Amino acid sequence: MAGHCHPAIVEGGEGAAGILERRSACRTIRNGSLRKRFAKRYPVEMVRFGSSGTEVTMHACRISRAATGRDKIVKFEGSYHGLHDTALVSVKPKETEYGDEFAPNSVPGGGGVPKAAVDNVLIASFNNLGSVENRFKQYPGQIAAIILEPILMNVGLCIPQPGFLEGLRKICDANGALLIFRRSENGSEAGVGRCERLFRRKAGHDCLAKSIGGGLPLGRLAQAAK
Predict the structure, then answer these.
(1) In the list 50, 99, 143, 177, which could disulfide-bond 105, CB 3.0-4.6 Å?
(2) Measured between alpha carbons, how far is 49 from 94 in angstroms, rounded to an integer?
């Protein structure tokens, strides 16, 4: 979005390099200024920075589990949310591994993903609220959160059908689960207002990365304003 080596970004990066700030530990004036910018653009209450989209979605899943006392996370077949164990499930499963549309199989995204981690990730079908409702019926009181890209992009470009995102919000509310939006690719470009309206009423997390760093490694985890 910012182009390649935009002079303003290069100049800002060179100035920041001299500070040698650790985002996870330091609380500086510069850090606080960036938080205020995000709070102004997005209706969020709390902001925490990381170095990647993987890092902030990992924290979002962990916080959701801690807040609810539940272990299971619902994600959508074909979606990508980073390289941690919870995210690397059913990213690009083979056709023979899909399973039922209303109960897709949980398929490890590669070697090294523990079976215990795979078992705690329930797969649903994007734009299919019935598959999500089915998971909550199968595992009552066990699901901590739903994580998704509002616009599914790992499979190309899949737009949510009317009522789908709103339906997820209602399902989460009815079952005491959190809603996590991972918007590394589409957080700044598309449908910003609609996404915020869907999770500001209840506890939820918003994960941004990639473009917000202007080419530098940056991730942002926020709790939506109620």
Answers:
(1) 99
(2) 35
